[in-house]
Amino acid sequence: MEVQSIRAIPLEHSLSPGSAFGGTRGVTETRTATLIKLVSDDGTVGWGEAFAPPRTVAQLIDEEFAEAVIGLTPWDAESLADDVYTGTIGGYHFGRGPFVQSALTGIEVALWDLRGKLLGKPIHELLGGRSRSSVTPYASTMYITEWDQDPASPMQEAVEEEFTAAKIKIGRSVEDDRERVRIAREILGDDAPLMVDYNGNYTVSGALESIRAISEFDITWVEEPLPPEDTEGYRELGQKIDVPLAAGEAHFGRFEFTDLIRSGAIDVVQPNLGRCGGFAQAEYIAQVATTNNVKVRPHVWNSAVGVAAALQFTATVPDYPQRADLANEATLFEFDRSENPLRDELLTDSLDPSDGTLSVPTEPGLGIEIDESAVERFAVDY
Ligand SMILES: [Mg+2]
After folding, report:
1. pLDDT tens column, 240-281
2. 324 has pLDDT over 80
3. Cα of 191 to ligand 1 centre, how many Å?
4. Which of 170, 246, 254, 309 could anchor a disulfide with 177, C-beta 3.0 to 4.6 Å?
5. DSSP 4-61
6. Residue 251: active-site member
């Protein structure tokens, strides 16, 4: 089986005017994704997602990757990643950069999808076996909104949808943080895991003040209280608080992740299967993380293709280490509840988190079937 064609497909859905939303670092007016479609010589199709500005990453794939990808077999996923660091793709100047790593990820995941379909096995079986057949989806919700949304309403919706865990956006001020967490905890109930996400909007002193102000509400992890590049700040903060620190959605490639994990700065690492470097890099990251007593919980804010990739990966993640403060935690899996038809409409059979569990697909490859008419509906020119 050889790759005969590659197509990068930038997708975009514009939110209606006035309905932009996001986190403390800003709101978004669109939801986007870039799908990668590989077609092999026997007609098998492999899909992946590159999670980066769509037109830019599509252009990058055409310019830097396309020629090298034609003729690859499903067994070349790992060597493609190596080429990005040492060969001509991206070159040693740009290979480790966010855009190249995102493009690599989309193609690498699509090669794994082909590999699974060739062997008739879901990717999690090929990655070292299934540690679990389902995960506990948590609602990513209570966004910072452009409109004056009552913060209680999205959490009430999540509870009505039977989510048993949630993550909310905070980080605008200590008072606001405390009030939002109080509301979330009240609606979610005392026993449900609750996480908070600052999107890197504080310095150490502000983060410390905020985390202390919300500590009575039993937070499962605190996500990106500091900018992703402030590793030393994470270390300093971690020494002063008892709540686990999480980061990784803005890290790229195995070298950055290794530095982050080995620095001792974080307790939970969050690679995204649309930009961390692909399945092989994610598995390496998971091994380094668990060897260094760091939990692995992917960041998932992708289209359905990226969600499926994260789900295949999460099925394989070791339970180790059994930290006391996370020991009884289910395998939490991010499930975004904001408006995104790219998450909800691209599959013939949508991933369903509605009863508090999300099953890991067992069909070959990513285990999903793409509705190509839906893909074309959101495709944009570049
Ligand atoms: Mg986040």
Report:
1. 999 999 999 999 999 999 999 999 999 999 999 999 999 999
2. no
3. 22
4. 170
5. EEEEEEEEEEEPPTT--EEETTEEESEEEEEEEEEEETTS-EEEEEE-S-HHHHHHHI
6. no
CA of 52 from ligand 1 middle (Å) equals: 15
CA of 167 to the centre of ligand 1 (A): 9
Q: Tell how far the Cα of 42 is from the centroid of ligand 1, in angstroms.
A: 40
Domain match, 291 and 225 both: yes
**Domain assignment of residue 382, yes or no:** no
Residues 173 and 239 grouped into a single domain: yes
- Domain encompassing residue 266: 125-359
Catalytic residue among 13, 124, 251, 299: 299
Tell me if 365 is assigned to some domain: no
Q: Per the structure block, which two tokens stand in for 121?
A: 């096995």
Structure tokens that stand for 159 in this block: 């509870």
Residues 140 and 53 reside in one and the same domain: no
Residue 378 CA to ligand 1 center (angstroms) comes to 25
Number of structural domains found in the chain: 2
